[in-house]
Request: fold
Amino acid sequence: MNKIICFFALLLSIHWYSAQDQKNVSFVKYEELEKRIQSEGDKLLVVNFWATTCAPCVKELPYFIEVNNKYKNDPKFKMILVSLDRAVDKERVLKFMKNKNLTAEVILLDDIKRMNTWIPRFEKNWDGNIPVTIFYKNGEKVHFNDGEISREDLENTITKYLN
Reply:
């Protein structure tokens, strides 16, 4: 009986969780992010690579938040903002998340030393510059956007692949 109660408590906590309430940021390695992408199943997964020190990244983030707020209740949609800030800058990332009211889930990819290994695994044409946004459906990459994306292009790409 206790297992059943714990299971339902876990489900409720997941259901009520929103990234807006995110008080911490998880550190992940590339392999963990890759597993996460595969585990999202039939969702359209929008993965944006950014950093607090990247002006074009900061400029486009409001578009991501607007679009995430529009689609976040759709069970076929998920957005993850992957910070490439250094692990020692975790507090700056947390402050930035709060100040910018980031409503999508934020993770910190703590794998800078292996960038030359994991960047081409995400996209062979990615030169390492950010921002970059990759769209996945059923764990497969369906669209790669190199550089800043407009709100219109973000919305159009989501609309194209969501259904």
Observations:
- The radius of gyration is 16 Å.
- The first helix runs from residue 2 to 16.
